Write the structure tokens for this entry.
Amino acid sequence: MPSPHFNVSIVSRATGGSAVASAAYRHAARMRSDIRGEVRDYSEKAGELVHSEVSLPEAAPDWAGEAFGEVAFERAVLAEAEADGREVSEGDAARLAWARVSQALWNSVEEGEERLNRKRATARLARSLTIALPRVLDGAAQVALMRGYVASAFTSRGMVADWVIHDKGDGNPHAHVMLSLRDLGAGDWGLKNRGWNRGDVLAGWRKGWQEHANLALERAGFSERVDLRSLEEQGLDLAPEGYNPHVAEHAERVGAVAREKMRCSEVRERNRAYLVAHPAHIIAVVQMRQAQFTKGDLLGALAVRLGVEVAGSGPDDGCGGGGVGRSGSSGGADGGRRSALHQPGEGGDGRAAGAGCTGACGEPFGGCGGRWRSVRDGQRAGAGGYGGIFIRGA
């Protein structure tokens, strides 16, 4: 199943963020922030960058097209070809040219905040998205998918989108998108568009990505589908544990109560109790962070969440099968019986308990192969479906 990772955050000066520095990382390039006078160089990561592009709204004003559009790109390509008499390939010239355009874009954004924002020291500079791409699609299909999605979700609303695709060759191709927060005025950056901050807009972006990705998968003849449902929507009683550490640190420093930090401590305890009762559901948690994972990743995530030592057991590198859920398939010979927490085969809130060492795709902790697939369409392992997992100290 493709990874459902879809993360949205803000690049803000309040947390030390720099739009130019963020763009330098994404473009695997060397960029200079005119406002800060700082240079960031990530050019050693150029091998991970497989595509880059800056997309403008169709109705972008002339000044924006000249500065950040195709005109600017063609001008930058010529500049790269002539720079220092170097010989560069067509692909490298395009990569370096888009990096130049990106540097100009985000320096313009940062300079605009200096002029237009009374709270310039804590200005929000850009919205950042990180999206896992279906790895079964080839590079050209991934680029086409992203181009269509960016046009539908962002530039059609008036945003400037600076987007790249990274692929280390580790089975985790992903896209980074940086979005402008201000409207494009007739001759300059306009007002901050607060409408882009609404929760329903973000929900629409997530839904739109799911639809675009699944249509691309269907057209390419693949049966896999992206599922961006939240843990709650999947029927898992796990709550978010995150909080802003900068806000909490400031509150504690001035003697105030860090309420969000306290709330998250309480949430962690409830989540811990839930995972003790339903350890197989850690799969959904891990799957939301990474496209593929090993048994060790799952055990490590359990150890962190539960605050205890977790060890694998059973034949063939700890794969012991999963017992039988109430409507699940049979697991390994004694995997379910060896569970340290539950009676064998109890828990039937999903169709697939562990599948022993049969290697059944989609059945948690099933099979002895190196990689583990997660359950799709909300089919989760029952409590007895994590056979061969021993939790010490729970």
